[in-house]
Amino acid sequence: MGQPVRDYLLTLCVTAAVTYLLTGPVRKFAIAVGAMPAIRARDVHREPTPRLGGIAMFGGLCAGLIVADHLYNLNSVFELSNEPRALLSGAALIWLIGVLDDKFEIDALIKLGGQMIAAAVMVIQGLTILWLPIPGVGTVALTQWQGTLLTVALVVITINAVNFVDGLDGLAAGMVCIASAAFFLYAYRLWYGYGIEAAAPATLFAAILMGMCLGFLPHNMHPARIFMGDSGSMLIGLVLSAGAISITGQVDPDLMKLFEGSEREATHALLPVFIPLVLPLTIIAIPAADLVLAIVRRTWNGQSPFAADRGHLHHRLLEIGHSHSRAVLIMYFWSALIAFGAVGYSVHSASSWIVFVIIASSAVGLALLLMPRFTPRAPHWANRFVPPRYRHRATERAAAPSPSHGEKPAPATSGAQQGAAGAQMGEEAAERAPVAVGVSGVNGATAIGARSRFPDRRSIDSSR
After folding, report:
1. β-pair partners for 138
2. At 369, is the secondary structure helix, strand, or coil?
3. 261: phi > 0 → left, psi -120 to 50 → alpha, else beta; which?
4. H/E segment holding residue 133
5. Which of 15, 59, 203, 290 could disulfide-link to 64, CB 3.0 to 4.6 Å?
6. Which among 162, 186, 289, 196 has a CA at the least distance from the CA of 243?
7. Which residues contact 287 (CB under 8 A, 6 or more apart)?
8. Burial of 41 (0-12, 13-18, 19+ CB in 10 A)
9. Whole-angstrom distance, CA of residue 181 vs CA of residue 186
10. How far apart, in whole angstroms, are the C-alpha atoms of residue 215 and residue 19?
11. 62 within 8 A of 212, measured Cβ to Cβ
12. How far apart are CA 137 and CA 142, in angstroms?
């Protein structure tokens, strides 16, 4: 079992390294071709930032698949299944649509049609849902049209859920990385724990997806040097949905043989195992909930479901007073709790301690949400080793040198110097102030920074 783990780790590292190394040249290319729109009235980031980060992520995907194809323990995935080729075909199409949108901002309906076509391409090549385990009924075989419609719907929903949550620096890449890590653990358990070869493609997809996100995150963390854009957010959403479709519709529950009895009883007993797979949105529950709330909010206000706004969950965290970094970490926390909690419960559904840990962690998460102004302070002896915002103010004032007896006071500053100092203090205060809810950048691919250019602090207007 150790050798396959090393092969997966090698595939992940190569994917991450290629993505990381390509992101720098891609950033320069995006600037050169003008995929860096100027700041507009509805944008909230303070300086133009290039997009097209999905080009580097697609390069990492291709590199990961090539490396896996040449590894002894993973080569069988390509020989026994056509799913990796189906994934590459659908990913190439959705990536091309995303690149065009990052550069030319194509219509939302055209993007939706492209997403459906990309899903159909994967279905044609065999990456589709064949059956579903239904509680109390058993394994239900789907007709070709039923499987196609369900697959396309799952791909479109997952892509848009990830795209909608891409509103803060490093948020979408980090959340998808967490979800894919939990998904990898589950798929690997099915493959090597029960010897189910049909789970092998999903395990590989999860490892490659982790590498794509980890390689891009260093360039995308706050303050971001490049955005993944729709070319990246739609790409990682498609890869995540492909893994869920592969393991949900291809793995037969009877192959696990954990329970004796009829097929109906076996499927009912295995329901906790298949919850995170039949409904992969339980693993990406945060962006899925954000997607549903956004559609309801926009249609209620008479807007298009694809219209950009700043009413997403991460924007609400900024509104109540959380900083950019803390808002991202809170979203990471909830994603990890839901993803690993679902996987942990599917493995140990009879253990009460899993439920206790989930409840306790949820209480911690709620406490973090209710304390946006709380800033932990380091001990006095550690003031020299931590950033200034975590130091004790009284200690800093006491350590500041004061003029001794007979020593001339510091010269008075000029009006211009005082104005510059006041402006700097105003910018620092603006960074700590909550961000008002207005309108975001195009397609959710905009980082949210300090809003010193927008002094008004308007509340959410339901009439807009």
Report:
1. 134
2. helix
3. left
4. strand 131-134
5. 15
6. 186
7. 161, 162, 164, 165, 172, 175
8. exposed
9. 9
10. 5
11. no
12. 14
Residue 238 near residue 90 (C-beta atoms within 8 A): yes
238 Cβ neighbours under 8 A, 6+ residues apart: 87, 90, 91, 94, 115, 118, 119, 155, 158, 159
Distance CA 430, CA 90 (A): 43
Q: List C-alpha distances in Å: 358 to 61, 304, 334.
A: 33, 37, 11
Name the H helices within 189-302: 194, 200-220, 229-250, 263-269, 271-278, 285-300
Q: Residue 443: its pLDDT value, please?
A: 37
196-228 as b/e: b if 16+ CB within 10 A:
bebbbbbbbbbbbbbbbbbbbbebbbbebebbb
Separation between Cα atoms, residue 411 and residue 134, nearest integer Å: 79
C-alpha distances out from residue 128 to 41, 90, 246, 372, 395, Å: 43, 12, 7, 44, 63
Specify the residue for token string 């990406």.
284
Find where tokens 């980090």 sit.
Answer: 174
Residues 6+ apart with CB under 8 A from 400: none
The first and second tokens of residue 307, run together, are: 């219209």
Distance CA 263, CA 253 (A): 9
The CA distances from residue 314 to 35, 40, 348, in Å, are 25, 21, 32
151-160, 311-320, 393-402: which range is least confident on average? 393-402
Please say whether the beta carbons of 438 and 42 come within 8 A. Answer: yes
What six digits make up the tokens of 150?
């369900």
Give, for 141, the enclosing helix (H) or strand (E). strand 138-141
415 C-beta neighbours (distance < 10 Å), count: 7
Give the integer Cα–Cα distance in Å for 326 and 71: 40
Residue range 252-273, pLDDT digits in tens: 655 655 444 555 555 545 554 5
Residue 152's pLDDT is what? 95
Quote the tokens at residue 417: 């110097």
What are the tens digits of pLDDT across the range 168-193?
888 889 989 998 998 898 888 888 77
The C-alpha atoms of residue 284 and residue 274 are separated, in whole angstroms, by 15
Alpha carbon distance 74, 11 (integer Å): 10
Per the DSSP assignment, residues forming a β-bridge with 132 are 140
Whose structure tokens read 């980060």?
53
Q: Give the count of beta carbons closer than 10 Å to the beta carbon of residue 88.
A: 17
Token digits of residue 292: 């549903």
Give the separation between CA 96 and CA 100, rounded to whole angstroms: 6
Half-sphere CA count of 305, side-chain side, radius 13 A = 11
